[in-house]
Amino acid sequence: MSENTDALAPRISLCHSFSTLVQDEEVDPHYEPVIKLTEQVDTKTMEEDESVLFKMRAKLFRFDPGSSEWKERGTGDVRLLSHKETKKVRLVMRRDKTLKVCANHLISSDMRLQPNIGSDRSWVWKVAADYSETPPTSETLAIRFANSDNAHQFKTAFEDAQKNNVTLIKGEAPTETNEENDEESEKEKASEEKTEEAKEEKAEEAEEKAEKTE
Questions:
Q1: What's the number of CA atoms in the CB half-sphere (13 Å) around residue 123?
Q2: Which of 131, 127, 121 is nearest to 152 (CA)?
């Protein structure tokens, strides 16, 4: 009997070790975090002071002059944003998922939406300074919509924003017409002053003659 007991002894020891190992693996220790994040960090998009005038899904392309080819720049929502204080409107487009900016420029008076050859749902225009990259770059862009109706809605909103910006810029800086009007008004004032001086001289001469007669 003693031999059988000795033969079983290692098995019991092995089973006990395995049981202990399993228990050790099932233990889920809890550790307190070294740093507690109590405040949520707000990510700024630089669009907080703007309101959305237009928003529509589209695909954007840029013309690469080096290869003379159109290259896709991104797919996402193209938006026209109006600043709440200045009222100026810019075009901003971000790529899906990554939200990386692929177009960012003010809509200026020199921009012209031209129809893309062979398509009634896309437009082409030139940008002197697009700020989606640093430093800003001069680009020829093309945008394509799902259908022609969407494309025409974009054109209408784009041109309305352009008129708005032109009016605001004219109000800020003096135009040539305003300068000409200012010069004319100064000339009129000068001529009026000369006329008054001539009248005063005549009146003085008349008084002198009257005194001499007396």
A1: 21
A2: 121
Residue 36: predicted pLDDT: 62
The answer to whether residues 158 and 113 touch, using CB atoms and an 8 Å cutoff, is: yes
Residues 6+ apart with CB under 8 A from 152: none
Q: In the prediction, which pLDDT does 163 show?
A: 96
Helix, strand or coil, per DSSP, at residue 19? helix
- CA angle in degrees (0–180, nearest 5) for 83-145-164: 30
Q: In angstroms, rounded to a whole number, what is the distance separating the alpha carbons of residues 83 and 51?
A: 7
Distance of CA 130 to the CA centre of its chain: 9
Prediction pTM value: 0.62
Distance CA 16, CA 11 (A): 8
Q: Determine the pLDDT at residue 187.
A: 44
Residue 53: its H or E element: strand 50-64
The CB density around residue 89, as the number of other CB atoms within 10 Å, is: 24
Which pLDDT score is estimated for 157?
98
Rounded Cα–Cα distance for residues 168 and 106 (Å) = 13
pLDDT band per the 50, 70, 90 thresholds, residue 31: low
DSSP 3-state of 99? coil
The alpha-helical segments, DSSP class H, found in the chain are 2-26, 148-172, 176-213
